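Could you help me review a protein record that somebody else here produced? My question to you is simply how this chain folds and whether the tokens agree. Thanks in advance; the entry in question is below:
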Amino acid sequence: MSHHPVRPGLADPYDFLGIDALLDEEERLMRDTVRRFVADKVLPNVADWFEAAYFPKELGREMGALGLLGMHLEGYGCAGTSNVAYGLACCELEFGDSGARSFVSVQGSLSMFPIWAYGSEEQKQQWLPGMASGELIGCFGLTEADAGSDPGSMRTVARRDGSDWVLNGSKMWITSGGISDLAVVWAKAEEGIRGFIVPRHTPGFTVNDIHKKMSLRASVTSELVLDDVRLPADAVLPGVVGLKGPLSCLNEARYGILWGAVGAARACYEAALEYAKGRVMFGKPIASFQLIQRQLVEMMVAVNEGMLVALHIGRMKDRGPIDPAHISFGKFDNVRRALEVARTARSVLGASGITLEYPAIRHMNNLESVYTYEGTNEIHSLIMGQAITGIPAFE
């Protein structure tokens, strides 16, 4: 990705609205550091990983060394960055691949965040430093085969047996499950939904990877099975009871996604722009044709608008608590727009667009998952619908 300097006052094809000027020096440094990491470690290899359905576990340690894991959390080896800095990192990671950003989202927002927010001091000390460094990989067990958008209907149960807990049930579509060292599993107890830290090698806990995926192939997706998994009393997260626990984690992850989708869209737009300027048809570059220019402009506008939405929501989040519906706004619109950009870029790239030599088809397939996970597009529309009407339409 070679960005050519543009004379002041002129529109930059890579930053049309001059959004870079809205970032401070520290934010730009974070973005550029992750951009270099993605250029060095992800982009040269990701087509092969995607084709082989492989995610390199060692990438987690490299991300940890850069301070990307749990980076918006304070203490315990976490970087303690702003929400905007975290978002910019997600944007650059997903420019590489949704699998790379998914790993960071799951590690920081879904696995580390509940321990950080609701765990005991002992749990935080035991797990968070190793997770921040990437030595320990976590996953988040909420979704079940029959309980996706309605997590309250989960069937996984936790019952007390003396001072121990015994868990039974299964979880589905769990990112990083097959490479994880621990799972944060949510289960129904007598008093309500509780979160449990389940170390990987606990007897009765098995993980089965999901194969034949056509999306998020450079990412591990698994089923977790809990068969009379016995845990000590100190495995439960003491700080939360009820759906508030897992939903607050999802809110954190959705925030990273609304930034990440812009990165995927930008990768597709830039690839299509470069290709259109170099691809000659009827004796001139296809970028000189009106229909192609229209497609390039539609992509550029979507990328810039998505970036402005992400940055605005990030600034709101840095100022203080925001309504989950604000995050739904970003996840809902940025992901669907990114999908449109990926499809348009594939079209501009012609036959080349279906190969992994270019990023469009890979992002297009990945974004189909991003459109659905962490709250489907439909669910986010209902969250916003309730926010503006005061009427819940979920049931």
